[in-house]
Amino acid sequence: MARLVIVSNRVASPRERAAKAGGLAVALREALSQRGGLWFGWSGETQVGAAAKPKIFRSGRVTYALQDLDPDDQRAHYAGYANGTLWPLCHYRLGSLSFRRSDWEGYRRVNEHFARSLLPLLKPDDIVWVHDYHFIPLAAELRKLGFMGRVGYFHHIPWPTPEVFLSLPSHAALVNDLSHYDLVGLQTEHDVRALLTYISSEARGWIAPAGVVGLRERRFRVAAFPIGIDAEAFVQDAAASVGSEEEARLASSLAGRTLAVGVDRLDYSKGLPNKFAAFGELLKHYPEHRSQVTLMQIAPLSRGEVAEYRALRRELEELGGAINGEYAEFDWVPLRYLNRPFPRATLAAIYRMARLGVVTPLRDGMNLVAKEYVAAQDPRDPGVLILSRFAGAADELTGALMVNPYDAEGMADAFNTALTMPIEERRERWRTNMDRVETNTIHRWCERFIADLSHSVEDFGEAVESRL
Q1: Catalytic residue among 364, 413, 443, 452
Q2: I need a labelling partner for 318 at 20 to 30 A (CA). Which of 253, 281, 324, 442 fits?
């Protein structure tokens, strides 16, 4: 069996507990543990003139290799091009996009540096799996250095339509970089269509069945691999929360009222002002729900050094204060807004008690909170998922109430529908969603990608041969 090598910006420490590391990190670590392998990524540390060699240590069958970065390169790569350019582009926020040639050069420089550090650790038959937009050029850099083994890439965030992607000055270079992978994985079929349309119309490549692509001298495959969660673990955590101290404290604070919950990183892509506005519209137009429902929004701080994120936090505090100021009673606060993370077990208890799960991003690659909420529900008395049509999860969780996050009054109507929905319909919708969550788990996602990456493009259709 070929060794698996995973490359990601963040590497989960072997000492990091599963509940803290998160589902993706746990799944990747599990895949590495089963096969034996290497996990390579940024150490989280910077130093001027960072050494070319990574820090290496071993835990069980997994070798960890952590690379320091020069502080200027790290800023240009991470805060500059990755999160100042690619993140807003892929989330359709062109007004927030900032492109600087120096950041683009730093982004490529870091990818070249990572490739040079990784290459001596690779074996010819290794399978290399690169994660996310921080490392799109990595395969091209590895090929320049002579590595001919199988390399795959998974893009965790949305892929923009050609019209949006063309706004990026470096669009052609990035797609050329993608062509050096053997397999490019995206979250949804919509993302796949967007990339393939660009390749055929703008890059003048050809598309064969099964997503096989020809671009210049390269042959590679593009396919959807919708990511899942560790459904069994979340079901167990939610069941274990029954009768727990967290459940008792939450129930006591609600005093018999209905709970709606949202859990989102504090980011402009999550549509939090829209969600707050919709909740205000609910209380305005459906006064029967006043003093009967509480919205708890958990929004851990993100990128606090960026001015736009600080402005978002101020906007949410003002919106939340206005809603509470207008509608609160002496024994009821409509909106609870929390800026800190909670352990998975605590989240599972909150999800299980919440009659409404409100997941309404303006744009999201998948959004695993939607799947976690479904998995945490009591099958006998499940809550209702309110889901943005612009989340990748909308393609799978068809039992949710779908909403347009730009329509505050329409979202308020969905709140009301969920709050008044009969239990029979709630059970039916939940079962539809849960079947999907249980089928497409994080472990199956991992296995599918590795299995497909292990095959050559010729294995996916005769049309490839006719194009050669």
Answers
A1: 364
A2: 253
